[in-house]
Amino acid sequence: MRIAGIMSGTSLDGIDVAVIDTQGSQWKLVEFKSTPYPKQLKTRILAVSNCVTHTSAISRLNFELGERYAAAVLALGTPVKSIDLIGCHGQTIFHERGNTLQIGEPAVITERTGIPVISNFRPRDIAAGGQGAPLVPFVDYLLFKHRKLLRVALNIGGIANITILLPGCKSSDVVAFDTGPGNMIIDQLASIATKGKQDFDKDGKLFHKGKVNQPLLQKLLRDKYYTKPGPKSVGREQYGKEFVAKLMATKLDIFDLLATATVLTSATIAASILNFTGGRLDQLIVAGGGAHNPHLMTHLAALLPVAAVVTSDTFGIPVDAKEAIAFALLARETWARRPANLPSATGASHPVILGTITNA
Description:
Layout lengths: L1 E7 L5 E10 L2 E11 L2 H10 L6 H20 L10 E12 L2 E5 L2 H8 L3 E3 L3 H5 L9 H8 L6 E6 L2 E7 L9 E7 L2 H10 L20 H8 L14 H4 L1 H8 L5 H24 L5 E5 L6 H10 L4 E4 L10 H14 L7 H4 L9 E3 L2
Parallel strand pairs: 1-4, 4-6, 7-10, 10-11
Antiparallel strand pairs: 1-2, 2-3, 4-5, 6-12, 7-8, 8-9
Helix pairs in contact: 2-3, 6-10, 7-10, 10-11
C-alpha cells in the first residue's frame, strides 16, 4: 500500500508530505516534500490559534487548508494515482487536556485527489480519557525499540516531546510526553528580533548575539509543569504570544531572551530524560526542525554526556520528514482497523482506533 502522510506542526513552518510504501510491517520512504506557508496564511492561522475569534474565520481556514493540503499532494513527483491512502494530521489551533481542534477539511482533500483520507486522529483518544497527545510514540516504538539499548526518541518541533524506550520494552511499557517548549518561543523571539524578516533562528546565528540570562532561566525552570509526571502535553496555549509577552515585559535585550529560550528548551528536555532514566541513556535520537539548531544540539550533548546524540537521519528517516511519515503509518493502522494510541503515553483508559475515514 502507498500512503501519503501530511503534517503541519505548531511551528507553522508549512505543509510536510511524506509518501511511503508499506508491505506488512515493513515500509520505505518514497518521497518527502515541504511546502512553506505563505506569510499571510501563517498570520491568519496564528490569529485563530489560542484566542477568541469568529467562527467564520475558522471555517474559512478549515476549507482553505484542505485545498492547500490537496495541492501539496498533487504537487509531488509521486503520481497521485499511485497513492492509496492519505493520513492528514491537520493544523492544530487549540489543544489542552480533554479538548483539541485540528483544521484542514478532509472532504476537500478526498474530492481533489480521489484518495481516501484518515484525519482527526486525536479526539478518539481524548474520548477514551487520554490527552490526544502525543501520538507519534506509537511509531517511535515501531521504528526505534531495541533489545539491549535504552533509547529516547526526541522530536523538537514547536513543542518538544520524548519517547522513552527501555531495552526490550513492550508497547505498554513506553513512556512519552511533551517536555515543554521546542522551537515555539525561539521562533517568536526571532521574528521580533528581525522585525519579521526571519521566523526562526537559522543555523543558530541569532543565538550568538545574546547571552543567557541565568536569573530568568532559573525562574522559568521553576514552572511546575517540568516536574509533573506524565502523561502530559502542552501547546501554543502555554508557550504562545502571552508567554512571549511576559518575556518582553522583563525589558531584557531581545537576543538575551532568545539565547535564554534556547537553553530553556535544551535544559527542560535533558531534565525530563534524566529524571526518568536516572542518568542512564544509551542513545538520543533527534528529529524535527530543532535538529538543525546547532546550539540546541550542542547543549543537549553537554547535558546528556552518557548518551550518543544522533539524528533520525542515522536510521534513514529525514529529521524534517519523521512526523509526516508517522501519520502515514498511523493512517495505515486506522485503515487496517488496528488501535494505534499508547495509553501509557496519552493517559487513555484503553487502546483505540484513531481517526476518521473520509472515503473517496
